[in-house]
Amino acid sequence: MNLADILKDSNYKLSQFTEAEIEQLEQSITLKVTKSGEVPYIVCLVRQKAIKLTPEEAIRQL
Q: Which of helix, strand or coil describes residue 39?
């Protein structure tokens, strides 16, 4: 899963972040199977807890 897929229908852009930052975040994405399919999750840097990776959360974690 890459961040471009997560951000495709949002107003957020990755242009202000380096390739290394984007790659590091993409490597930490995990997929959890739910009733509606696979959902991306990431461990929050502050809370140290798995959270659903929404476009807003992806930008916040970067």
A: strand
